[in-house]
Recover the amino acids of this structure.
């Protein structure tokens, strides 16, 4: 029986063969995983997995399997199939164990997914707000309000007009389509001692007025999923925390990799996925990251930036956040203010996670780092990694 090998960055290795991402996965195992993903995509219309496996038994390559589904199944199932394959593969190359598709012809299919990362990092600790922070933690302090509003602005559909009600309508619609946060798709942490900007920082438990047995999280990483036509199958990864490496708020839109790169493997080893990075603070601006040929005798591609900075482009200081809000309040402009239905829905998204977090303890991470190791594992499960702001 032919078998397929996922690359080290593939999600299939992590999902199906545990901690060995380079393991060879048999066709039957791949099909079983595919059935699982299809069931997840449409639980109201379950498949007969034995019948599906029987139909697929005669085929030895992924191309043949996907072509069969596209040619013989209903359109709805074809859509399911493509979505499920997209969920399984992230920059994954599938090849037969002998390098062929069973007929002696080279067989290779590359699948890759885009993703969006939202980071809200603070370099400071709780300072003199320990009593307040003990009652709130990172979810109530940052996620329920600030971070989810950034998330909604990025993912919402274009409003009919650039005014308060149309914009808030689209934000509320987006939040209603978002799945509630869950324990299995989240990580919590609490900062320990370390160094931030070269200065020693104390652990959260050593901060004044913090109980020595506190399990209040100062960090969260989570995966958000949206059930609508635009974003189905595209994950949003969020993280927020205190005592991180630096103060930064940014949104990174990572684009899908093309199905084929016409360059030698060694030429693209250091090439990252193209990304559009929206820097909210500090140094407000936008960066476009893409690949460019290095000026060397040999062919080599490197990731470079094109930057736009508000400060240098307009030669004016960007107003502080509260300056803008106060002016909008005086003018009666509610665009940047959260409407009640969005507030209520935001609580509906985070409440299940807060309830689940009543048990257990957060993982300690070093001050001056980018969070606990489990946050890296959260993305590694999907064959991804956090970008470094």
């Amino acid at each position: 029986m032919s078998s397929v090998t996922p690359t080290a960055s593939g999600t299939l290795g992590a999902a199906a063969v545990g901690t060995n991402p380079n393991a060879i996965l048999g066709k039957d195992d791949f099909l079983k995983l595919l059935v699982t993903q299809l069931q997840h995509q449409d639980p109201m219309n379950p498949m007969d997995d034995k019948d599906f496996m029987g139909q697929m038994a005669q085929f030895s390559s992924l191309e043949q399997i996907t072509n069969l589904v596209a040619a013989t199944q209903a359109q709805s199932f074809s859509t399911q199939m493509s979505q499920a394959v997209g969920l399984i593969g992230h920059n994954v190359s599938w090849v037969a164990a002998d390098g062929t598709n069973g007929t002696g012809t080279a067989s290779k299919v590359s699948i890759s997914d885009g993703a969006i990362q939202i980071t809200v990092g603070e370099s400071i600790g709780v300072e003199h707000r320990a009593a307040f922070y003990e009652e709130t933690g990172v979810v109530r302090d940052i996620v329920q309000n600030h971070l989810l509003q950034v998330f909604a602005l990025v993912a919402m559909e274009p409003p009919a007009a650039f005014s308060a009600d149309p914009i808030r309508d689209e934000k509320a619609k987006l939040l209603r389509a978002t799945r509630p946060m869950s324990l299995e798709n989240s990580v919590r942490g609490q900062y320990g001692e370390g160094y931030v900007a070269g200065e020693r920082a104390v652990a959260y438990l050593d901060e004044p007025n913090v109980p020595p047995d506190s399990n209040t999280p100062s960090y969260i990483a989570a995966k958000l999923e949206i059930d609508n036509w635009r974003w189905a199958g595209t994950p949003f990864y969020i993280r927020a925390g205190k005592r991180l490496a630096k103060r930064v708020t940014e949104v990174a839109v990572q684009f899908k990799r093309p199905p084929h790169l016409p360059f030698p493997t060694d030429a693209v080893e250091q090439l990252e996925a193209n990304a559009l990075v929206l820097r909210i603070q500090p140094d407000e601006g936008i960066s476009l990251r893409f690949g460019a040929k290095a000026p060397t005798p040999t062919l080599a591609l490197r990731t470079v930036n094109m930057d736009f900075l508000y400060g240098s482009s307009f030669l004016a200081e960007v107003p502080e956040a509260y300056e803008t809000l106060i002016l909008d309040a005086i003018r009666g402009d509610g665009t940047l203010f959260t409407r009640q239905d969005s507030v209520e829905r935001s609580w509906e998204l985070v409440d299940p996670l807060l309830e689940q977090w009543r048990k257990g303890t957060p993982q300690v991470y070093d001050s001056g780092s980018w969070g606990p190791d489990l946050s890296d594992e959260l993305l590694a499960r999907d064959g991804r990694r956090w970008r470094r702001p």
Remarks:
- The chain has two domains: 3-111, 115-380.
- The first strand starts at residue 3 and ends at 4.
- Residues 3-111 form one domain.
- The radius of gyration is 23 Å.
